[in-house]
Amino acid sequence: MTVSAPPATLPVDSDRLWSSLMALARIGEYPDAATGLMGVNRQALTDEDAAGRRLLIGWMEDAGLTVTIDAMGNVFGRREGTDPDALPVVAGSHIDSVGTAGAFDGCLGVLGALEVVRAMNDAGVTTRRPVIVASWTEEEGVRFGTDMLGSAVATGRIPLEQAYDLRDGAGLRFGDELARIGFRGDASAHIEAPHAYVECHIEQGPILAAEGHPVGVVTGVQAISWQRITVHGRAAHAGTTPTELRVDAGLAAARIVVHVRQMVDSGEYGQLRATVGHFRTEPSLPNVVPELAEITVDLRNPDDGLMARAEADLAAFLAQLQTETPGLRIETEQTAKTPVVPFDEDVQNHIEKSAYELGFTTMRLMSGAGHDAQEMAAIAPSAMVFVRGQYDGISHNPREYSTPEDCAAGVRVLAETILGLAE
Amino acid sequence: MTVSAPPATLPVDSDRLWSSLMALARIGEYPDAATGLMGVNRQALTDEDAAGRRLLIGWMEDAGLTVTIDAMGNVFGRREGTDPDALPVVAGSHIDSVGTAGAFDGCLGVLGALEVVRAMNDAGVTTRRPVIVASWTEEEGVRFGTDMLGSAVATGRIPLEQAYDLRDGAGLRFGDELARIGFRGDASAHIEAPHAYVECHIEQGPILAAEGHPVGVVTGVQAISWQRITVHGRAAHAGTTPTELRVDAGLAAARIVVHVRQMVDSGEYGQLRATVGHFRTEPSLPNVVPELAEITVDLRNPDDGLMARAEADLAAFLAQLQTETPGLRIETEQTAKTPVVPFDEDVQNHIEKSAYELGFTTMRLMSGAGHDAQEMAAIAPSAMVFVRGQYDGISHNPREYSTPEDCAAGVRVLAETILGLAE
């Protein structure tokens, strides 16, 4: 009787992965006043983004990948398989950042996929299918206002020309900025549907830490609804206008903020999360009752039905507020809306099995944030590996942190998943 | 038996007053999108303010006044009296405006006093005391952040150098801008205490219209308290951060706004008025829980004791809010604070008697807004004439309007009051 050795796993190099993450984080770094830490500001299509892209492409070429850049500036590094007819396995994420970022969001997925290829090279592993490392353009959406922009164009949800015509806060056009940094590539903006897509990402939340798991299997992305609410009131002198004659746009907006939290606390909408991130008034003077207030409302829900109920009830509250205050007018604009995106069961099973075989405990959980994987899910079987974060999983903040061990754990799971999918 | 003729009154020219108001309103005019009307934007020490000052000074000189400009840019036009030792009667207001103004706020008091002098000239009237028409610099406080600035320096409440060092939103220094527009005058920044000060001004409120009086006798200015409240929370991802882990600065600020209105509605603080005119968040992104929110709170009360109670109760609410949400920190800064300023009883009697003799019904009322008269009240007997406004007395808005008849009524009352005080 022969006892078979445990299956060999890809030799992911934790130190190499970490030093790549830290090297990329130097590009766009700044001293963050709020935290006292060095933060990262590498927003899409800035000079910093271009420098980050050049660093990444250099590493891809060193790893023997064939690099192509598409018309959206999405960067692909391809490692050939043994079967010329086989569809590839794509793994990636993004390296653009918000204005006050840490080192991990997005970067772990891109540099993790790169590390998988490096480990395959080190081990002399060949796969039947090609493996492609993808780095998507403007995932954060903070500069041009639409998140997952690069992957949304690649998968056909957003037309290329519409993306090109988006403008940043300074009025600069996406298409022009893409050309300016030298990343308006020749390849088609539409990606051919791959065999599968897998993305490793920090959780950006506290659940894995609370449950004691280094990695998680992501079952899908919760529904997201963004609206901009503009309240029109009437400007009036703070000292002379009797309270009963006021049509106070700022007060009405504040009532919306408080009400939205009451909706969350009521429990009537399941696991609803609600955020008012933006609040401004006009004319914004201490002694003038606001004639206008503008807020954003970000709703998330893992259940499409409960999301619809929350949206309807919020709309009813706005209508009531308008009725209660003659002269008040409330406008709403839906600025983003995606239903629940369920991930592919088979890819989830590959991830879970890889974690199990590597000896990591894991759990299935839903993503609260949007990711490029939800765009790829529209054209190919897709799923994600989540990596535990520290400090309650704080993200979009220089305090964002996952340990070198947990990053390596996530990338080892990614590696085995890719290996399994690529055979 | 002889029947005495009714006493002659000064021949105030309603048309001349109105055409002067309309001519001044052309300087700084702009098409106002919100109202569809032409508005006025003639903020202190802008080129428009300088042009307005030059127009005024030309008119003063045409009326035979001796013009002096002090080190704060306050403009004085003096008409001599017959008694070289008599202290003058000063009448005036301001011609600077907020960014979205009408034609009347301040201008009525300056051009009204000018019309009084013109009418005296027309009637060949001499007075024992000199009469001075005053136009104060930066009454609105919208550009350099401190209202009644010119009169506050003239009367000694604010040091000249402190005023010079104030900066506008673009970082420009008050003293430099004053010199740039050519209005840093040679006269001392400190005015000699006059015999009396009287100011005609639109009411900027609905009371005279509601009570059916064209003019009012102002008994004083209510107490004013301004504070800037800064709430420090913790930035967090809108999609991934569980509600119970959030320290939402924007939500806390919204709760303050709602609470302040509840304080007003409670009736516990008498005739308290409260306004949150300014509300902003950081980083102000739809999908980030605000780490900072900044609001202004403007409190007004005709009773100093009830104002103190309102301020104390608001401070207690802020402390409670901080205690309820671990991690939340609330800072407050008092940016303005004036107690109730009672006006002089004798000057009020002069105004009331003038209105009575001219056949105008009137009433006594307190001012909700601050005025230069409250600064002058610190050094000389002072009071104000209010003129009825239309549209609920809307002000700081292009819809601000008082009829030609009501403007003339106010200026006729001003004229007889000045005449009485100057004898």
Automatic annotation (TrEMBL), chains A, B:
SUPFAM superfamilies with a match to the protein in the record: Bacterial exopeptidase dimerisation domain, Zn-dependent exopeptidases
Protein name: Zn-dependent hydrolase
Transmembrane segments: none
Residue span(s) of domain Peptidase M20 dimerisation: 223-322
Keywords: Hydrolase
Molecular-function GO terms, alphabetical: hydrolase activity
Highest taxon, organism lineage: Bacteria
Family: Belongs to the peptidase M20 family.
